[in-house]
Amino acid sequence: MTDRLPHEKGFHISWDQIHRDSRALAWRLDGHGPDNGAWRAIVAVTRGGLAPAMIISRELDIRVVDTISVKSYDHQTRADAVVLKAPQADVMGADGAGVLIIDDLVDTGKTLELVRQLYPKAHFATVYAKPMGRDMVETFITEVSQDTWIFFPWDMALQYVEPYRAG
Ligand SMILES: O=P(O)(O)OC[C@H]1O[C@H](OP(=O)(O)OP(=O)(O)O)[C@H](O)[C@@H]1O
Ligand code: HPA
Ligand SMILES: [Mg+2]
To answer: Annotated binding site for GMP: which residue ranges?
Structure first.
């Protein structure tokens, strides 16, 4: 799989790292909601946004958590983004004001562009961002270059590697 990557570099994220970076995102968002600093709800962009959204909902004590399912990638090839499942209308209100939309990363920005068309007043936040999509989010933690493919822990498994210097 890796040898078919069109990307120059790989950035491999462990569970520990995504936990730390998601916590950092939670702390950055804390106190910036419209209701005395509080956020009304979290909406995770499934599937990648689910893990960061869980961690952020715990840190910020947000109990209303919903999902939006956007399908935009067929493995590592881009395809048109479509909404497969929308969040509850009463959670989003008219325009998403006071709602945190959480995803693991923004790459080209196509996924969040579609979500923003639906909920223009929501606050968009991702753990990682690439330059092309960076302006689609209000808040992110770490930027990586456009030619980097981010590997998340839920897509990986521990495996044997040959020693650097062969015996
Ligand atoms: O900014 P973009 O170029 O749109 O890319 C970013 C999106 O792509 C990935 O999701 P994907 O569609 O692969 O689905 P998944 O979350 O279910 O893995 C990632 O989790 C983001 O949601
Ligand atoms: O860099 C990436 N890693 C994982 N999923 C992705 N979806 C778009 N870009 C990426
Ligand atoms: Mg995703």
So the answer is: 107-111, 149-150
